[in-house]
Amino acid sequence: MTEAALILRQRLNETFAGEILKTAIILGSGLGGLVGELNDPVHIRYSDLPAFPKSGVSGHAGEVVVGRLSGRLVMVLAGRAHYYERGDAAAMRPVLETLKALGLETLILTNAAGSVLQDMKPGSVMLIDDHINYSGMNPLIGEHTDARFTGMTAAYDAELKQAFRNAAHAAGETLFEGVYMWFSGPSFETPAEIRMARILGADAVGMSTVPEVILARFLGLRVAACSVITNYGAGMSGAELSHDETKTMAPLGGQKLQNIIKILIGEIG
Fold this sequence. Notes:
Layout: H1 3-16, E1 23-27, E2 39-45, E3 63-69, E4 72-78, H2 83-86, H3 93-101, E5 106-115, E6 125-132, H4 158-171, E7 176-182, H5 191-200, E8 204-206, H6 210-219, E9 222-232, H7 243-268
Parallel strand pairs: 1-4, 1-5, 5-9, 6-7, 7-8
Antiparallel strand pairs: 2-3, 3-4, 5-8, 6-9
């Protein structure tokens, strides 16, 4: 068990001894509002957990928060480290290894993304059905065991996707579905790259999530992921893109996603 897992287990046993914790949620830029929905929350800073990344991106709090949501115990990871911060696609590996060591089974990922489709407007929520790793980076580069040859045919769990659809219907929220394309960042895409993404079959673009999906499948965790659409891709609206826009727009779709996740957690346990 990792040192971070031992620290977390001790802290959580003080408050939640005997309760089952099986699900973790990683929050993207500007999506920290879900933390406020947790009852009896326990907060642990990433900086207090050995090997946890220190995110340098505004809009990412950098803490683990465990509490009850819809009557279920859940772990929320408020913030992530990105490839573009230090050129490390495996930056979140210590975090996911800690989740595995604690016995968690399900990982729900969220992110802020740009839409490639005119019909999927800012403020929308998109369930990720599949992804395209356009960056060419992979968090399993350097792994020496044969487990590095991780299958990705069913990277996004079919039962969890259906649970998301059911939760969205119950919440009365529209849920788009599509393919997410990972660009390395930190610069935004060009109009030509957005046109390319559309031709290649992408519906949304972003700078995260895919490395975590690969790592989670490598570790045997079930995965589901959603994007909150914060903007149209470059060249689609005529406006320049910015991280400030991402942080401003994320809470709009973020509230819709929170409504869905609250129902989802109650259903999947």
